[in-house]
Automatic annotation (TrEMBL):
Protein family per UniProt: Belongs to the CBF/MAK21 family.
Pfam families registered for this protein in UniProt: CBF
Residue ranges of every copy of the CCAAT-binding factor domain listed in the record: 43-192
Keywords, sorted A to Z: Membrane, Transmembrane, Transmembrane helix
Assigned GO CC terms: Noc4p-Nop14p complex; small-subunit processome
Protein name: NOC4L protein
Record-level GO BP terms: ribosome biogenesis
Name of the coding gene: Noc4l
Source organism: Baryphthengus martii (Rufous motmot)
Transmembrane segments: 31-54, 85-107
Length: 254
């Protein structure tokens, strides 16, 4: 048993400072699988090490995607390791051999959690979802279901279901993205509106959006050039601008 602080430090450097220097990296399988099952930030940090064992050392992990799916909670858009998590999730969902129900469950869960996400996270996750649609065309029924939100009295998707195959995501539709098209941040509304049109075949590069911060968004808005907006169609006269006012006879504006 390691203290939580040390546990996190070990997991952060596991993939580049520990596993490459071990004669038998597979000795870390139990350590990493236990860490992955703990939940929260520790599970997120265990992903890097597991990724190496799965791709380079043929680790078979039957419930891997189920556990990855259950890591998606409201905090995922706010945690310190958000960029690392979404980078690896993007890699894990890149295979075209994944079943449609599994990818649809990830899309639906990410979309529903996006309703309470900050703008900087939304500007990353919307292109992320669009890329999943490009890789898995069978999931496009979530967007192109005829009269989707209008014909559904309630959403068939079961958010609380831990098993992706039982979540009924493929029977649902992405009303959440439609809601984000009315988001208060214009860039988010514009990004969400992309799904109203046919997606291009080339994937969006999300690498530059993974570490986008609220400070960067605010700084970008502040640096925008202000546009002069005409607010008065009549020239102001006098102190209060009224033509037949006693103040207009005694006060003028230079």
């Amino acid at each position: 048993q390691l203290p939580t602080g040390l546990y996190k430090k070990v997991l952060v450097i596991m993939h580049d400072s520990i596993l490459p220097y071990m004669n038998e990296p597979t000795l870390m399988i139990d350590f990493l699988t236990v860490a992955y099952g703990i939940g929260g930030a520790i599970s997120l940090l265990a992903l890097n090490g597991l990724f190496i064992l799965i791709h380079q050392h043929n680790l078979e992990y039957p419930d891997f995607y189920k556990k990855l799916y259950n890591l998606l909670d409201p905090s995922i858009y706010h945690v310190k390791y958000r960029a690392r998590f979404f980078h690896l999730t993007d890699l894990f969902l890149s295979s075209s051999h994944l079943p449609a129900y599994l990818v649809a469950a990830f899309i639906k869960r990410l979309s529903q959690l996006a309703l309470t996400a900050p703008p900087e996270a939304l500007l990353m996750v919307i292109p992320f979802i669009c890329n999943l649609f490009r890789r898995h065309p069978a999931c496009r029924v979530l967007v192109h279901r005829p009269n989707g939100p209008e014909d559904m009295s309630e959403d068939p998707y079961i958010m609380e279901e831990e098993e992706p195959s039982e979540s009924r995501a493929l029977q649902s539709c992405l009303w959440e993205i439609q809601s984000l098209q009315n988001h208060y941040h214009p860039d988010v509304a514009k990004a969400a509106a992309v799904l109203n049109h046919s997606l291009s075949e080339m994937e969006d590069d999300i690498s530059g959006l993974l570490e986008l911060s609220g400070y960067e968004l605010f700084d970008k808005e502040v640096k925008k050039k202000a546009i002069d907006v005409p607010l008065e169609f009549e020239q102001v006269r006098g102190l209060f601008g009224k033509k037949n006012d006693i103040f207009a006879e005694h006060f003028t504006l230079d």
